[in-house]
Design brief:
- By secondary structure, the protein is of the alpha/beta class.
- The chain has nine helices and seven strands, in the order H-E-H-E-H-E-H-E-H-E-H-E-H-H-H-E.
- It has helices at residues 3-6, 23-34, 46-55, 69-82, 107-133, 157-177, 195-208, 212-221, 231-241; strands at residues 14-18, 38-43, 60-63, 88-91, 140-144, 183-189, 253-256.
- Helix 3 (46-55) links the parallel strand 2 and strand 3.
- Helix 2 packs across helix 9 (231-241) and helix 7 (195-208) crosses helix 8.
Length: 263
């Protein structure tokens, strides 16, 4: 096979993207669909889900709260119906969680962040793994972490804790599933431009008592390339990890962040 062909995912891969209607998830779903994959997404945002499915014929979708085990089960019923199996799981779902000093955080914010960012990874992985083992098509599980999963993140402890846990899950599953030919990797996006990051910057600025523009510049000053990344940058990495060129890449935690030096 020519080298340039190995850099593209195989055609007709069966791909599930959680939280696939917005942001990074939508960029990944569109990228795989554009490469000829059969893509199913799930999302808790009904209007965004309907818009993406309507705008991209061929992508199918399920309304689901990924932090609820029963909803995950429903998604996999739909995956079986629409795709007839699975070759790739992109475990993308996540929320920013609360911002504040540890002594000021309430229990509900902590528990919701753990439920969405970590429990969902378990619910979807446990249902996906039997299908991935049966795939025979260079099966791949990608967990979406964060640069906060390799650096400490003051005033964002619930988020950081869950993203560190995603790294542990990735490393453990890579060892567990390697003998069955299933590859498991994590992508750690950095500061991703868009509405969600705008909200995070505003919340952190408020927590620290400084202006939003000054807070934004502080984020950029911590990045070696002095720029944010895009959702398409992350999607491109996911595509590579699911290509034949990455057939021996597993157990890896790959930052797509312009080299964030500290948080």
């Amino acid at each position: 096979m020519p080298l340039h062909d190995t850099l593209r995912p195989q055609p007709d891969l069966r791909v599930l993207v959680t939280a696939g209607a917005n942001g990074i998830g939508a960029a990944i779903a569109r990228a795989f669909h554009g490469a000829g994959a059969r893509v199913h997404i799930c999302d808790v945002d009904r209007s965004a889900l309907d818009r993406l499915v309507a705008a991209t014929p061929g992508i199918t979708g399920s309304m689901a709260d990924a932090s609820v085990a029963a909803d995950a089960d429903t998604v996999f019923d739909d995956v079986q119906s629409h795709l007839g199996g699975l070759d790739v799981l992109i475990n993308n779902v996540g929320i920013a969680g609360p911002t504040g000093a540890i002594e000021d955080l309430d229990t509900s914010g902590w528990e919701r962040t753990v439920s969405v960012n970590l429990n969902s990874q378990f619910y979807f992985a446990r249902r996906a793994v039997p299908l991935l083992k049966a795939s025979g098509r260079n099966p791949c599980l990608i967990s979406m972490g964060s640069v906060a999963g390799r650096l400490g993140y003051a005033f964002r402890t619930p988020y950081a804790v869950t993203k560190w846990a995603v790294v542990g899950l990735t490393k453990s599953l890579a060892i567990e599933l390697g003998p069955q030919g299933v590859r498991v990797n994590a992508i750690l996006p950095g500061v991703v431009e868009g509405e969600r990051m705008d909200g995070v910057i505003a919340a952190r600025a408020a927590a620290l008592g400084i202006g939003v523009d000054a807070m934004r510049q502080q984020y950029l000053d911590k990045i070696s390339l002095r720029r944010m990344v895009t959702a398409d940058d992350v999607a491109a990495t996911a595509m590579f990890l699911c290509s034949p060129a990455a057939r021996n890449v597993t157990g890896q935690v790959i930052s797509v962040d312009g080299n964030v030096e500290y948080l």
